[in-house]
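Objective 1b: paired records.
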Amino acid sequence: MPRNTLNSYWERTTFLPKVNHKKSNILDYEDYLIKRWNEGEQSVKNLYKEIQEKGFKYKIRAVYELMKGYPKTIVETMLEIVKVKYYSSKQLSIWLGSFRKDWTDEVPKAYLTRLIDANPVIRKVRNAVLNFRRFMKDKTGEKLMTWCKNILNDEEEHIKGFAKGILSDYKAVFHGFESKWSNGPVEGQVNRLKTIKRQMYGRAIFQLLRKRVVITSKW
């Protein structure tokens, strides 16, 4: 308490008159507020405006104090929001480009089946991709030219660019289908060298890069 206030009380010879704060008549509107609350209007500001139009003359605090314990009936009865899981186009491409027997338990099999059945374009492209994979697996390069021609003659544009790329270097691709040899190990070592060089921010000279490769190989 400030010193001046204390001194003023000390010097008084009589008590200050009691101030009676005028109570609001908010209870007169309680039935209406409960009715509107149960109807779904749970904004105190909106309810305050409504009872103001009905003659309420006091501040909004009275409405807050009265309604702060009201149950949130609307929140309690809201329907549970169903979470929809989305898949990236990359993930869908991997799944759709693989055989059903290779689908693991993590793959949404029912979703993919509905997707394939509902979309003729996806179904057609998927069949073309799976046929291409069969040719690679079975080493049947003689079917490759027919496959490319069918793709180019089809009205769908989705993998025509892929077929054109094969025809532009057809001889090499054909031998890749027919030959038992593969440059996969070479490409793997090239990627390994690139990874090691990236770890040194691309500043590895040949001698240092060689040491890194040799040391890593010993492990």
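Objective 1b, second protein:
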Amino acid sequence: DAVIGSMKWPLARLLIYGSVSSDGESNRDTIGNSSGSFKGGIGGGSGGTILFFLQGLLVEKNSSLSASGGKGGIHGGGGGGGGRIHFHWSNIATGDEFVQIASINGTVASSGGSGNDDGHFGEDGTITGKECPVGLYGTFCTECPVGTYKNVAGSNSSLCTPCSLNALPNRADFIYVRGGVTQPSCPYKCISAKYKMPNCYTPLEEVIYTFGGPWSFAVFLFFAIILLALILSAVRVKIGESEVTYRATSAIHNDAYASSPFLLSLAEVPGASRAEETQSHVHRMYFMGPNTFREPWHLPYSPPESIIGIVYEDAFNRFIDEINLVAAFEWWEGSVHSILAVLAYPCAWSWKQWRRRKKIHRLQEYVKSEYDHSCLRSCRSRALYKGLKVGSTPDLMVAYIDFFLGGDEKRLDVAATIQKRFPMCLIFGGEGSYMSPYHLHSDTLLSNLLGQYVSTAIWNRLVAGLNTQLRSVKQGSIRSTLGPVVSWIKSHGNPQLERHGVRVELGWFQATASGYYQLGIVVAVNENFYKSHHHHEHAPDFGDRSRKNFAVPLLGSKQAIQDQPCTSYGVSRKRLTGGVTGGVINEETLKSLDYKRDYLFPLSLLLRNCRPIG
């Protein structure tokens, strides 16, 4: 037996280069009885006891520490039992201060000795150590394996308990900790640097789960987009984004023209007279359609009678082909609108308005700079790119092209052409909803034209009063809500205008194949209007402008309606103002005015009246 060190004075470090052993003795002798009839081998000696009091141990390569049993003798000698080796460790460091206390590169054994012939092997001895503190286990107090923890004292390997996988994220692995893990919450690390602790999420997932998960984040994102749309719309209103309207002025606001070496058109020369422009105006031709992705703006073929004398018909039809192509939307624009309409309807409205604004800008640029004005008879208009201007209402629902004289026409032709201005159709903007009600937009050109017959104050009061009445007109119940408008025009509007030889009537115009039609008013001047008004039941076709240039026949009899069996809107489809199809709306024709029934009224009410501010 051997004792190395003491409890009071332990060895700081034991280095073994060679062999330290307390092995049992091996015997080769035999024994027999007194008569000599039996002989047997002597058993091997048992291993001894080695007790160490130390702080560190190093067993080098090819070195050994042994307390094994001896081998048994011949003729059946059994092996000796293994001895006992015990390490009483002192001052075992833990946690971050932990250092390895034993390094075994050789062998440490306490096995039993082998038997000879039929002799049995000896039992193995024991190799033990002092109880290890938390985080450490085994004879030599090593750290528990990664993924386990130990929070009690002892040396048994079963005390290293596996860590719970419930707290381990999917993209994480347990990591090594110096001195072993001493708590059930085992530390871990994400498998890649692109994932962030503690949940090993990507940055986007961090944001999503901050709001409670994908569904909660989707709801938050939905409302955030709506809020952003509201803020952007409010900012747009604050900064006073210019409305897309008809601009009578032709002053140059772009400094780029100042440095341009090319000849400017007359429309681009500063100082153009508004009065001259008003006098040269011939006709306003409105685009058909609501300017949606399914039904974009388009112009009808064949020139109106008002401009037949100032255009070449073939070239005019080619111009219609070209401008209708420019006015059409791309397929992807409608696809984006459909997606946004499902995800965030206010954003879909903003998208539609943005594309509409782009479209009217494109139309204006095309007519102003790209089209050669070859459809106009006036040489001066063709040379100076003058004679056509594109404009629209502020809500981008209605667009139009104004036709002007070039100034080189014959005097008689000019007089005859200007006489054809009236009756004039003025189409309402809007779509008959709360957020976009019907309204009459009177721009500078219209005010100047009508200012020749009625004072600006009276006309502006008429427009303001009419717009007030139109706010209550709903597309889904147009028959009942248009009645008060007709009555108001009859009782308040016309009495003020008739003193000046002007009269207005409500009408519908430019029906398309889809069933969409536009509402507006017909403005007529001159005393011929009244003659026509008193005899409207017997009035001829609206296209008969050669006999009654200023007549606006009103369809007031049921017989007139029955005479038009092919109409699809309940009122006869006649010619107004030399080219605009439609009919006048009064108390009689209002009853047969067609409209689309809205079977999903609650849903459409929400969608049609939900959009960003401004």
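Residues 242-418 form one domain. The longest strand covers residues 502-509.
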